[in-house]
Design brief:
heterodimer, A: mainly beta, elongated, B: alpha/beta, 6-stranded parallel β-sheet, binds thiamine diphosphate, transferase (chain A), Single_hybrid_motif (chain A), 2-oxoacid_DH_E2_comp (chain A)
């Protein structure tokens, strides 16, 4: 059975309440390894690469470049076989 | 050391991927100081440390559920989830407090030592702080009174060479932090803060001095912080060569190698210690994540000794 691991926007610093999504580093439907950077966000003008929480197939959510998302938003999922 | 490293690594992993939310100032790189200090203190000896002191709390034997629980604001945390990383207290293990006010732990520790002396107790108080803290007025006031009253305090400066984004040379006109003790006629020494045995030797001697009525000691333990000031710090200000050189002196692999070379422990035994550390952290984390947030009724608890007449 496939298990879905949510990909949530992390709280990167004390002041972070929301982040600007910049880009995916991995295409939709591609395999990723746990800890591999999968997308880039900007907080307080600093760019951060965010790592995959699990190994599996990355399924992009609705995140759009330059859109702002609150910490905790589920912006993708990883299907773990 | 390995347990403190495992706690720090698991927190960074979980925060970085959005698994849970917490704010930490990573102690990765400074574990040898915490191990040396923690092992040299008696359970009832007091410890005061900072926001970066998670490793110090592990070294003093605070249960992982209480540390992780507090960092994540859960009811099973050391301060019942109301304090966070900057306000951890664990009286049963002798931890008086962590503080986010740079230098503020020093006078508190001196007060705890004064209390021990007045109570006729042979308890010693250790206080950990950074190099930057030694530039504050509270540090100098505390040093002065500890020396004047010959109090049982062990001052432990964990000199990681940076204060936020400022290198130590930009804020003090001395070569060695340890020289600051000279203004207070205080004994002390500068040790390799990446060598747990060197730290342990120095702190043990300091504790013996304090316990036997010989007054305070100042120890400068030179080390480094690998992950920057706060979690998420990209460290753009830090020269790459400086970080690379510091990582060459990473206390964890270095001590592992020393134990192997001396035959004190086998590779299998060392691996078992690492695996045990990871398992302890995972077990504690699972318990913490399943624990509830503090109850609303906690809001006005621990605020005043007597709540009578205080609007709730
Ligand atoms: C009294 C006070 N001044 C300034 C700050 C802001 N501040 C937070 S951490 C920090 C640097 C402290 O450096 P150091 O004492 O070397 O400790 P480290 O963070 O390196 O462990 C500063 C200036 C503060 N928290 N408190």
């Amino acid at each position: 059975m496939t298990q879905k691991v949510p990909v949530q926007v992390p709280k990167l610093t004390m002041a972070t309440t929301e982040v600007t999504f910049l880009e995916w580093l991995v295409e939709d439907g591609q395999p990723v390894e746990e800890e591999q950077p999968i997308y880039v966000v900007a907080t307080d003008k600093v760019e951060n690469e965010v790592a995959a929480p699990a190994s599996g197939i990355l399924r992009h959510g609705t995140a759009e470049p330059e859109e702002v998302y609150p910490v905790g938003t589920e912006i993708a999922a990883i299907e773990v076989p | 050391m390995t347990l403190a490293q495992a706690v720090d690594a698991r927190l960074r992993k979980g925060i970085g991927r959005g698994e849970f939310f917490a704010v930490i100032w990573p102690s990765r790189g400074q574990e040898a100081v915490a191990a040396g200090v923690g092992a040299a203190l008696r359970r009832d000896d007091r410890l005061v440390t900072t926001y970066r002191g998670i490793h110090d709390l592990v070294g003093k034997g605070v249960p992982l559920t209480e540390i992780l629980g507090e960092i994540m604001g859960k009811s099973i945390g050391a301060s019942r989830g109301k304090g966070g990383t900057m306000h951890i207290t664990a009286p049963e293990q002798g931890v008086a407090l962590t503080t986010g006010i740079v230098g503020a732990g020093v006078p508190v520790a001196v007060g705890l030592a004064l209390a021990a002396k007045q109570q006729g107790s042979d308890r010693v108080t250790a206080v950990c702080f950074g190099d930057g803290a030694t530039n504050t007025g509270s540090f100098h006031e505390g040093m002065n009174l500890a020396s004047t009253w010959q109090l049982p305090v062990v001052f432990v400066c964990q000199n990681n060479l940076w204060a936020e984004m400022t290198p130590i040379g930009d804020t003090m006109n001395i070569d060695q932090v340890v020289d600051r003790r000279l203004a207070y006629a205080m004994p002390g020494e500068r040790v390799d803060g990446n060598d747990p045995e060197a730290v342990h030797r120095a702190v043990t001697a300091a504790v013996e001095r304090g316990r036997s009525g010989g007054g305070p000691t100042f120890i400068e333990a030179v080390t480094f912080r690998f992950e920057g000031h706060y979690f998420g710090d990209q460290q753009k200000y830090l020269p790459a060569e400086e970080l690379a050189a510091a990582k060459e002196a990473d206390p964890i692999p270095r001590y592992r190698q020393k134990l192997l070379d001396s035959g004190a422990l086998s590779a299998d035994e060392l691996t078992a210690i690492d695996e045990d550390a990871t398992a302890q952290v995972e077990a504690a984390l699972a318990e913490v994540l399943a624990a509830p947030a503090p109850d609303l009724a906690e809001l006005d608890q621990d605020v005043f000794v007597n709540m009578e007449g205080i609007p709730s």
